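User: Predict the full complex structure for these chains.
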Amino acid sequence: MGRLQAGLPGVTVSFAGVLANILYGLTIGSAYTLIAVGFSIIFGMVGVLNFAHGGLVMLGAYLGFSIMALTGNFWLSLALAPVGIAALGGIVERLLIRRLYGRDIELTLFLTFGLSMVFSNAVLLIWGGSSCSIQLPSYFKGFIDLFGVYYPKFRLFVLFFICLIVAVLWLFFARSRWGSVIRAGMFDIETVQAFGIDIYGVFTILFVVCSGLAAVAGVFVGAMRSLSPVMDLDFMTVALSVVVIGGMGSFKGALIGSLMLGFAEAFGAQVTPGLAKFSTWVVMVAVILIRPKGLFPER
Amino acid sequence: MAGRGKIAGLVVLVLLALLPLGSGYLFSDFYVALVLRIFIFGILILGFDLLAGYTGLMSFGHAMFFGTGAYVAALVWKYLTASVWAGIFLGLGLNTAFGYLLALLCVRTRTIYFVFLTFAFSQFFYVAADSCRAIGGTDGLSGIPAPTIAPGIALESRAAIYYFTLACLVLAYVAARRIVGSHFGRVLVAIRQNEERVRFLGYNPSVLIRRVFLISALFGSVAGTLMVSFQPFVSPTYYHWSMSGSFMIMALLGGMGTLVGPLAGTAIVIVLGDVLSTWFKDAWMLCLGVLYILCVLYSPGGIAQIARNKTVAGLVSRLSGRAPERLGRR
Amino acid sequence: MENDAFRKKDNRLTRRDFIRAVGVGALATGVSGPFFTAKADQPEIRLGHVTNLSGVFAEGGALLDKGLRLAFSMSHYRDSVKFFVEDSQTKADVAVQKALKLYEKDNVHLLVGPIGGHESAALSAVLAPKKKLLVEIFGANSYLVGKDCSPYTFMLGHTTYNLSVPMAPWFLKTLGNKVFLVGADYTTGRDAARFFKEAFEKIGGKVVGEFYSPLGTSEYAPYLSQIRNAKEKPNGVFGFYGGSDCVAFVRQFEEFGLKKEGFVYIDTMIALNMTLLPAMGDAVVGFYDCATTVPYIDNPADKVFMAAWQKAYPNNIIDEFGMLGYDAGLCLIKALDAVRGDASNTNGLASALHTIEYESPRGKVKMGVNNGTVVPVYARKVVKRDGKFRHDATFLGYHGTPCGAPYEWGACKLGCPA
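Assistant: Here is the predicted structure of the three-chain assembly.
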C-alpha cells in the first residue's frame, strides 16, 4: 500500500484515501439515490416533471427535525416524517396534478414550480431561516475503522437502509405484477386501462410512495448535514442531474446516475478542490454528448 | 384590424416613453427601474417565445445566454473599453458561438430531452462562473463603469438607460414580429406542429431550428448586456437554472406563441413580485406560488387566454396578429 | 384537442373572472402605488435594513434587526424612527435590488447592510457613487476599508482583517506552529485565510495544507480527509465557514473522527454564535472562534442590554447577533444626535459616523481609519456549563484597520495621514 505524492500540496494518494473516497461517494450517492429515484419514477411513469420534489425532501427533513426535537426519538422521526410527507404527496396528486393529466408537460412544470415556491416559503415561515440539524441518538454517534478509513456508524446505517429500500423497489418493479403494470402504463396508458386497471389510482399510489421516499432521504440528509429553507434547490439540482445522466424514468438509471454523481463529488473535491462543483457537471455534459437520452433511458 | 393593433401599440409606446419624465414628481425613480427591468427581461422573453412558443422547443437554459451577455459586458466594460457597443457585440459574438455549438447538439433532441440538454449546459456555465475566480467566482464582479454610446456620452442616468433599453426592446419586438410573420416564421410553427411533414415538404428542420436557436440566443445576450448597464453587477446566479425557470414562468404565464402574451407575462411577474413583497413581507413567494397554481388550474393558456374572452382579448389578438383561436399553446 | 379543452372551460367563467379580478387588482395597486408613496416631508427617521432572512447566513438577519429595534426603542428616537426591512436571500444581486428599492421607493435615509461579505461589496459599489449611506455590521469585506472604501460606507462590526490577524499570535502561543487552512470559497473565506496565513508565517508559523469549498457545500467528507492526510499533522484547522455551512462542517468534522484524533477547529467572523451552537450539538464543544463580542460578558453596558433584551424578547436567547444589532443601534443613535435627529442630512451623518465614539456592550468602540471601527477582539472557546453553551474568551486587544498596509489599503486615505 504505497503512498504516491500527487502534485497537489498536502494531498497524498493511498489505498486508504481511494477507499475513503469510494465510501464518501457511496454515502453521497446513496442519499441522492433516494431523492432521484422518486423523481425519476414519477417523471418517467406519470409523466410529471415534479419541480416540487426538492421541496418534499426538505419538508421531510424539517418534519423529521420537529419530531426529533419534540420526542427525542430518531426512529419516530424516520417513521412518521415519511408518512406525513407521503400523505402530502398524495393530496398534491389528487387535488392538483390529476387535473393536468393528458395536457402539455409545461403546465405541470408551471404548477410544480409554483408549488415549490409555496413549500420553500412555508418552511421559512414555520421554522425560520436559521440553520438547524437533526441530532443523532448516542448509539449512532461514533465511527468504525474500516481498513484505515474512519467511517461514521450512522452513515453505514444509512447506506444499509437505502440498499434495503432500493432492493425492495427493484424487486417490486422487476418481479411483481403491479411493477409490470406500472412499467406498462409508462408506455401505453390506454391499453393498461383497457385491461380494467385504474391507472390513475396507481399514479396516486406512486406519488405517495415517491414522496415518502423523498422524506426518508430528507430525514437522513437532515441528520448528516444541516437544514436550511433553501436546501430544496440543491435537491432539485441533484434530481434533475441524475435524470439527465441516468435517463428518464429508469430505476437503474437513477441508481447508477446517483452513484456517478456521488463519486464525482467525492473524487472531485479531493483531486481538484477548486473545481469541486465542476466535476459533477463534467460528468453530466459528457453523458449528454455521448448519449443524449441518458445512460439507461426507459424509452 | 391590424391598424387598430398598430395604434394601440403606438399609444403604449408613447406612454412608456413618457414614464421617466414623471419620475421624482409623480412617483419615485424606483418605478422607472421596475419598468426597465420589465424591458430587459422582455427582450429575452421575446427570443424565448420564438424558440419555445413558435418552434415548440422549451429551453430550460436561457439563463446561459443572459448570463454570458452579462458577464461579457461586465468584463469588457471593466477591463477593456466602456463602449456599450463593444459590450453588446462581443456578447453577441460569444453567445453566437455557444448558441451554435449547443444548436448543433440539440438538433438530435426534442421535447423533454431538449429541456435537459439546455439545463445541463446552463448549469455548466453556472458552475464555471462560480468556480472561476478570474471572473469573480461566487462573488461575481462589481464596480463596473457605466457604458458609453459614443465617446463622452455615458449611459449614466436611469433615464438614459431606460430610453436605450426601450429602443432595444422596440427593435427586438419589430424584429420578432417580422420573423413571425415571415415565411421562416410560418415554417417554424409548422415544425412545432409536425416536424416530419415539414421534412417531407423539402425543408431541413435542423437548419431552421439552428437558426431560430441562434436568434433566440442573441435576444438573450442583448438582455444580459442591458442588465449590466442597469445594475452594474454580475454574479453566477445569472446562470442558475432557477433563472431559466423564472423565464419559463414569465412566458407561460402570458401565453406562449403570441409574442405579446409573454411580454405581458413578464410585466405581471415582475410587478406582482414587487406588489406582493410589499403587501406580504415574508410570505410573498407563497402567494406568488399559489397564484401560479391557480392560474394553471383555471387558465392554462395563460393571461392571453384569460384575456381572450373579453374585449381585452380583441386587442391582444390584434396586436399579436393572429386569430383568437390560434392563441395559446398547441 | 387544445381547443376542446378550452371550450369545455367556457362555463367556468366565474373562476376565471376571479383570477382576472385579482390580476387587475394587483396591477392597479402596483400602478397606483407610486402615486401614494410620492415624496412627502419626513420629520421621521427612515432606517432601511437589508439583511439575510433566508439563505446560508439566515440565522443572523432577524436577530440583528431585533437588536437594532431594541436600541432605538430605548432611545429618544423611539417614536420618530421607522424601520424598513428587506431580505437579501444571501444573494448579492438581490441585496442590490432591495437596497435600491429601499432608497428609491421607501425613501430611507440610511441603510444597514447584509451579512455576506460579497453582498456588502456589491452594495457599496452601487450605493457609494450615488452618495447613499451604507452601514455594515457584518458584511465584513476588508476591501471596503481598503481600495473600495467610500466616505459613505462604514464597517461598524468588524472586518476579515481584524478577526483573523490577531488570531495568528494566539494560535502560535496556544496551539502550535502548524496550521491547516480551510474556508468557504468566496471573498470572506479566502480573505480570512489569506490574512491569517501572512501574519502567521511572519511570526514563524507554517501552513501544512489548505482547501476552500464552494459556499453552500453540505458534504465535507472528501475535504476533511485532506486534513488527515496532510503531510504534517496540524495543531489546528483555521478558517471561515458560516451559517449552514458551519453547522454541516462542524458536525462532519466530529462524525468522521477528526475531533477524536485530536484535530481542533478554529473558525472566525463570529461563526460559532449562540444561535447556531444548538444545531451543532456537542460536536462543537472545545472548538474556537474569533469574535468582537462575547455573550454574558461582564460589563455595565452589557447588563443593561441583557435586561432589556430579555424583557423585550423573552423567547430569544442572548446572542451575538442581537447584541451587535443593538451595538449598531447605539452607534446610529449617537450619530443622529450629532445631526440633531435630522436623518436626511446625509453628509452630516457621514461626517458624524466618520469620527464616532460610543459605549456598547462590546466596550468602548470608535471609528478608526478608512471608516472601519477599532474593536475588541476575542478568541473564544465553546464550552458547556450546566448543559448550556457558553464561551470562554481570551481578550486579544483592540484592533482596527491599519493605514497604508498592504492589500491595496494605501488607496484609501479616509483618516490616514497623507
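The domain at 167-268 of chain C is CATH 3.40.50.2300 (Rossmann fold).
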